[in-house]
Design brief:
- The protein is an alpha/beta fold.
- Helices cover 31% and strands 25% of the residues.
- It folds into three domains: 7-94, 3-Layer(aba) Sandwich (Rossmann fold), CATH 3.40.50; 99-319, UDP-N-acetylmuramoyl-L-alanine:D-glutamate ligase (3-Layer(aba) Sandwich); 329-474, Protein-Tyrosine Phosphatase, Chain A, CATH 3.90.190.
- It is built from 14 helices and 23 strands.
- Strands 8-7-9-6-12-13-14-15-16-17 form a ten-stranded mixed beta sheet, with helices on both faces. It has a six-stranded mixed beta sheet with strand order 18-19-23-20-21-22, with helices on both faces.
- The longest helix is centred in the middle third of the chain and has 16 residues, at 291-306.
- The protein is globular.
- The protein starts with 6 loop residues before the first strand and ends in an 11-residue tail after the last helix.
């Protein structure tokens, strides 16, 4: 424990990073409380299991008696009652990223995974590689903080008295009083950089602004450190061009230091070989499908190998890697209808999700049910890319834009225009207002063999439970048979 136990309150505790930090702080012996405007799984379930009280909604009285420290989440701004009381009474406060650095990263080797896409899965893979390697060398057992629940651990965090801390590096801003990206607090000793695309349209004006943030992150890696970077992206190349440490690229091209060859998906497994600097290094397999997941796994393998972990441990870890909650997670199988949940925040992520489902379920009719909820998808800036991604589905259903009144009219995505564009391209599409309307509208038309991909980065008003419940009414299950796969 770094200091005597304190009462630490987290305002905005149900965000994945904030809830994970709460768990780490509790492991240090601190008394933790939290508040949020609305708690929803999986973090609400995790906090409940940890015995950490969550108060809803935000209120000044949530800070009575006054805690020793308040961690203010980046979703909170001036006008929030807890923020106002903190400032009025000068209660000590900080951000999630700053406290993670001060309490957990100092004195450890910081291994950071960053990028517009793939960082949660890649961070989970890297943590599992270290965990498997620790079977032969306990000093390798990692501490970690991940922006999702890694199914191999059943958790999004772990704390061990060992040197390595693996952390998902988020490019989103830190707090209302610190508008820089969170990952600039983490001072990586080694860094994975997956992709750099325009995202978070609420805080970044354009792609150049996003690239500037990632360039600053790369600039924090010391000369003795290393960067493992995707090799088929001009923006990634630009972001690492002035790195002063070792840089190793991964991907499919012959110039990649870590080259993927012979990628295939068969018998429920993804298999491929990795060539390191032109030499066959390992033959790998895992149960997760998708080219993007093979890239994620290769990035994790490359960083771990660069830190001294052997190919055998990496091979074993990837072959036993499960997944991350809300990433291509099968929520129900009912009379041959498969309902899949995926954390969709960007057109590229949607494209890769639908491509993967096409590969796994090649004979199925594929439905895409999208809630435009992320700060990028709620805006029209990438509407053309969104249409192209959704065209990979056979049927598309869009919900209304989440909290559209908070997006300026001239910036707002108009889902009816997306539906019209899809229809003009020959993709059956419709707009239904909310989760209840979608369930009522599509459930009677689903037939055995269909796959429904529900795409949202939020709770989507409980559609993940509502749709399977309605399907169970239409297709009653035999007594005692679960709708879960």
């Amino acid at each position: 424990m770094s200091a005597s136990p304190r009462h630490i309150h987290l305002s905005g505790i149900c965000g994945t990073a904030m809830a994970s930090l709460a768990g780490l702080l509790q492991l240090q012996g601190h008394r933790i409380t939290g508040s949020d405007k609305a708690a929803y799984p999986p973090m609400s379930d995790m906090l409940r299991a940890l015995g950490i009280p969550v108060m809803e909604p935000y209120a000044e009285t949530n800070l009575t008696p006054a805690p020793d420290l308040v961690v203010i989440g980046n979703a909170l701004s001036r006008g929030n009652p807890e923020v106002e009381r903190v400032l009025d009474e000068r209660i000590p406060f900080t951000s999630m990223a700053a406290l993670l650095r001060d309490e957990f990263l100092k004195g450890r080797t910081s291994l950071v995974v960053a990028g517009t896409h793939g960082k949660t899965t890649t961070t989970s893979m890297l943590a599992w590689i270290y965990q498997v390697a620790a079977r032969h060398n306990p000093a390798l057992e990692p501490s970690f903080l991940i922006g999702g629940v890694a199914e191999n651990f059943g958790s999004s965090f772990q704390l061990r008295p060992t040197p390595n801390f693996i952390v998902e590096g988020d490019e989103y801003d830190t707090a209302f009083f610190d508008k820089g990206p969170k990952f600039l607090h983490y001072f990586p000793d080694a860094l994975i950089l997956t992709h750099v695309e325009f995202d978070h349209a609420d805080i970044y004006a354009n792609l150049d602004a996003v690239k500037t943030a990632f360039k600053r992150l790369v600039n924090l890696v010391p000369r003795r450190g290393a960067v493992v970077a995707y090799d088929a992206s001009e923006t990634v190349t630009e972001c690492i061009s002035h790195a002063l440490c070792r840089v190793e690229r991964y991907g499919f091209s012959e110039r990649a230091h870590w080259q993927i060859r012979n990628l295939r998906y068969d018998s429920g497994l993804t298999r491929w070989t990795i060539w390191r600097a032109g030499q066959l290094w390992a033959e790998l397999e895992m149960s997760m499908a998708g080219e993007h997941n093979a890239l994620n796994a290769t990035a994790a393998a490359a960083l771990a190998a660069g830190q001294g972990i052997g190919a055998d441990a990496i091979r074993t870890a990837l072959s036993t890697f499960k997944s991350v909650k809300r990433r291509l997670e099968v929520r129900a199988c009912i009379s041959g209808i498969t309902v899949v949940e995926d954390f969709a925040h960007h057109p590229t992520a949607i494209r890769e999700t639908l491509r993967t489902l096409r590969a796994v379920y090649p004979q199925s009719r594929l439905w895409a049910v999208l809630e435009p909820r992320s700060n990028t998808l709620r805006r029209k800036v990438l509407a053309g890319d969104l249409v192209e991604s959704l065209r990979l589905a056979d049927r598309v259903v869009l919900a209304g834009v989440y909290q559209q009144q908070r997006i300026p009219e001239d910036e707002r995505l108009h889902p009816e225009e997306v539906v019209h564009a899809l229809s003009e391209h020959g993709t059956a599409a419709e707009l239904l207002a909310d989760a209840d309307a979608i369930v009522a509208g599509i459930a009677p038309h689903l037939v055995p063999g269909d796959v429904v991909a529900i795409l949202s980065n939020g709770g989507f008003d409980g559609i993940y439970e509502k749709l399977p419940a309605r399907l169970s009414e239409i297709y009653p299950q035999p007594s005692g048979k679960s709708v879960r796969p």
